[in-house]
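Exercise: predict the structure of this protein bound to zinc ion.
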Amino acid sequence: MTADAFFAAEPSVRSSWRLAILMGANSRTYKFALGDALLEHARHGHTEIPLSELAVPYAMSLVKHAATAPQAPEGTSIGTTDFLALAAAEREETRKLGRPTDLLLEAAVKSMPAMVMQKFHNLRGGREVPHRFYEMAGSPRQRIVRLTPELLQVAQSEQAAGLRAELGARWSIVESSFAAGIGRALIEEGVAVDWSTLQLTDKRRRRPVTGVADALIGFQYGRCLICDDVLDLADAVAVDHVFPYALMQRYASVGGWSGPDLDVLWNLAPAHEACNSAKSDRLPRPNELERLARRNEAIMGSPHPLRKTLSIALRQTNSGMRDASWPDFLLEVQKCCS
Ligand SMILES: [Zn+2]
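Solution:
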């Protein structure tokens, strides 16, 4: 699914935000740090802030993340003038102070305009997301960031906490792919689900990556896959097997389940706990399958590392079908149920 199709299916300011966070290309993680800093200021109703103030949460979150995970692909050369190199050098002092050192803050203010502020709204192919979340003003010496009403709307909406969780999940997944090295773990082996914690686990490194619901919910427009209403991550959230897991057990007595593994990402979807328990082991309805196909297509259309995990599933179970689409794939799975 293209960025256009993702937006067209639910044209809203929130979808624009999700395009920027979920569908934009990333060779580093600066965009997530900026997104988080923007949400933080907008949550407090700020409309005009000096860049030097926006740079504080930006630098702090990068320092915090860089302490535990790489912020650029393995093998990327980080030169001595690189912001990440400086963040590493200033990490200890920043941690002690509880705020960025003067040197780090100065470097953030200097590098942010070209490195991330001008790119935040960009999509691949030289296009931009449909809404703008800030404008730059002021002089190069005294830059001002004007937060738009659209950003305030996003940051103060009832889904705001969920959007921050999505951003955090996307950040973790990108870091995890950087750590594993593109082309290895997340691509060849994919991620597994730890059902005791509902976390995605990097199979090769055997480490939790992020919550399953946080990782997937943005591609479902923050909605429950079963009832299609907004799913507040603060509510009781379940991860539904869209094709019930019980199918694999039920068929075991009659020669085995002939369909694909149902305990993997393509078949898992965040849902209200109440919707999930009411659904129990029934087969998915056509509108649920439609939403699942659209959700999986959205992930496949993003530069999200999880798309690799999905394309493995699509390929493995469709050896005879080249370029199978998600609706075709789900139809095939349905045939195995009859
Ligand atoms: Zn629901």
